[in-house]
Amino acid sequence: MTEENSLAATAAVPAAEPPSKPLLSWQTAAAIATASVGVGAVLLHAIGSIRHNVFLAQFGMDADLFPKSADWLMLYGFYGVFNRANWGLIFLRQHWYWLPVVWIALGLYLFVLKTPVGEGEPGPITLWLKRKGAWAKRLILSLILSWLAVWVSVVALLLVWLATVFIGVVGETAGLATAESAKEDYAKGCEKSKSKCVILRKGEQTVSNGYVLDSSVSHIVIFDPEERKVHSLAREGAEAIFILKANSND
């Protein structure tokens, strides 16, 4: 094979394409996952704390008397989010007819947004910029950048506000829903309710009986279904006896 044929054969072979880089590296994915876990833990803790405060407030109690650990608040917040998500699914099932309306409205919005707009005749601002020098373009560009900076700050502040509103709404609605459900259950009495009743005794004397709303190292809160009152009692020297219900098949 001549030298010319060798060069021609080499040129005919396509050059190997460089290996494509992944869109998301493992380091970036790990950083995003770590940040998501941290943000999620903060959100659950905040929602659990708000839910706990609102629940006790519905019974006239101060939540500061019953501090909870961070793990407890996160778990309580998790169940609060689940409670609200379950409510949302029930709402969608009952008002399913809104889904096609939102779907069509969103589709029309995206259609208008992606519809190309013809250039047409240049406007007065475009003609003015063409007649002026570079200083006019720099001025317009500086004004546009400063305008964008102002509105980016406003949007960021709005997003922070919406995030705090979301946390407050989820925690408060979850606490209110839990309190209302508990009140309905407690109104049935110890024999018919799903919640267990407790008898609080000190020595041979019964000091209270009803449902435990909350407890701490020093105090316990009991709701009396007969008197419909809430009792906050010291736990020192007290014995709580839970009333177990018999199984339905016994």
UniProtKB/TrEMBL annotation:
Bilayer-crossing regions: 29-50, 70-90, 96-113, 139-163
Domain of life: Bacteria
UniProt KW keywords: Membrane, Transmembrane, Transmembrane helix
Protein name as it appears in the record: Uncharacterized protein
